[in-house]
Amino acid sequence: MTHEVKSAKDDAGVTARHNARMARKKEVVDQKIAAAKRDAGVLVITCGNGKGKSSSAFGMVARALGHGMKVGIVQFIKGAIPTGEEKFFRRFPSEVSFHVMGEGYTWETQNRERDVEKAQIAWERAKELLTDASIKMVVLDELNIALKYKYLDVQKVIADLQARPAMQHVIVTGRGAPPELIDVADTVTEMQLTKHAFAAGIAAQPGVEW
Amino acid sequence: MTHEVKSAKDDAGVTARHNARMARKKEVVDQKIAAAKRDAGVLVITCGNGKGKSSSAFGMVARALGHGMKVGIVQFIKGAIPTGEEKFFRRFPSEVSFHVMGEGYTWETQNRERDVEKAQIAWERAKELLTDASIKMVVLDELNIALKYKYLDVQKVIADLQARPAMQHVIVTGRGAPPELIDVADTVTEMQLTKHAFAAGIAAQPGVEW
Questions:
Q1: Do B111 and A59 touch (CB under 8 A)?
Q2: N or C: lower Cβ tally within 10 Å for chain A?
Q3: What local confidence, expressed as pLDDT, does residue B197 receive?
Q4: Dihedrals φ, ψ of A194, to 5°?
Q5: CA separation for the pair A52, A59 (Å, rounded)
């Protein structure tokens, strides 16, 4: 058997096994899709220590805008420096209402009373979005941090989330999502840190981190 | 001691402890920031089974556009249905070059030869972006799947990634990132599935999933 003939046979084997595996996979995926038929506004939580929590929310904003949906964004903690996402989404004032309500990370502000007060004002703003059925997606960026430090009462937040319009999607981001919130969410992803450029001495890059 | 006085004392204690903790945290964060000074184009990988891999990449695109950067996007696998992200980012043709090179997920196409061929054409398109220093961020969406099924050679892909302009950021998404690629990446997040609305019978919602 020449090398060439053997390779051709191997390739045919790889292709046949791949095709068989893909056929089984298609069956499983098709069954799942057939079962998942209901439309509903979903509550998505992105948490964990890894990079990607807020950026995932802003990617969903881009998707929603592509589908002609109106979006509301409240940033609970960020706000000390103007971010790329803020600059960009403010270009579309009739499609996106963007509210920067924070003054930086809480370890920067060093003032708990002020953090609590700011979080409560931010929640009032969020509630305006959560009672407006014309807004199809609401991003509550870093809300988890405000809940973790008990700047807001988690039961009140959950009650307001559950009273929202039926087809409105809500994305909540940040480390330290409380278990009560995870319980009532539809989709939850924990962003696990495998590695971060920060540890290798690379500064937070515009476009990537802010 | 009245209840009111006790509460006030407790509150003062909570605030004092919180402030002390935040002061320590600020010290640690400040030290890390002082150490991370270098600017560089970073290679970011988002992988794992959870929701948020591609959406995180599209959020970084929004950030980059906010900073006035030009962005290139190649979608390796998706392409069977028009997505929200495609519709949205195609609004900005002078800022975003958007290339949909796939024909759907591989278990949908059921044709390995064709998948390999499409992936190789897509990589040629990616290489055009990876050799253009005016493009400040390149998204290679679902590239990990093409690597996992060996539609592309991982060593060739790594060589081309490492030859890119020094300040260009690259975001690679998809399940099954090969260990060789993780080794050379700067920032890697594994999106861990805690729960997904799909399992509760909710169909993939526009804006959220596509």
A1: no
A2: N
A3: 94
A4: -90, -50
A5: 10
Cβ <8 Å between B84 and A106: no
Position A22 pLDDT exceeds 90:
no
**How confident is residue B1, by pLDDT bands cut at 50, 70 and 90?**
very low
Q: How confident is the model at residue B109 (pLDDT cuts 50, 70, 90)?
A: low
CB-CB neighbors (< 8 A) of A29 in chain B: 105, 107
The CA distance from A133 to the nearest CA of chain B, in Å, is 16
Q: Which of A37, A63, A208 sits opposite B201 (nearest CB)?
A: A37
Q: CB of B60 within 8 A of CB of A207?
A: yes
Nearest to A191 among B52, B58, B203 (CB): B52
Contact between chains at B15 and A52 (C-beta distance less than 8 A):
no
- The count of other CB atoms within 10 Å of the CB of residue B192 is 17
- The predicted complex's ipTM stands at 0.87
Which pLDDT band holds residue A96 (cuts at 50, 70, 90)? very high
3-state secondary structure A32-81: HHHHCCECCCCEEEEECCCCCHHHHHHHHHHHHHHCCCCEEEEECCCCCC
CA distances from residue B140 to A76, B113, B114, B164 in whole angstroms, order as listed: 31, 21, 19, 14
Contact status, residue A202 vs residue B186, Cβ threshold 8 Å: yes
> In the beta sheet, which residues pair with residue B98?
B73
Among B89, B169, B189, whose Cβ lies nearest the Cβ of A207?
A: B169
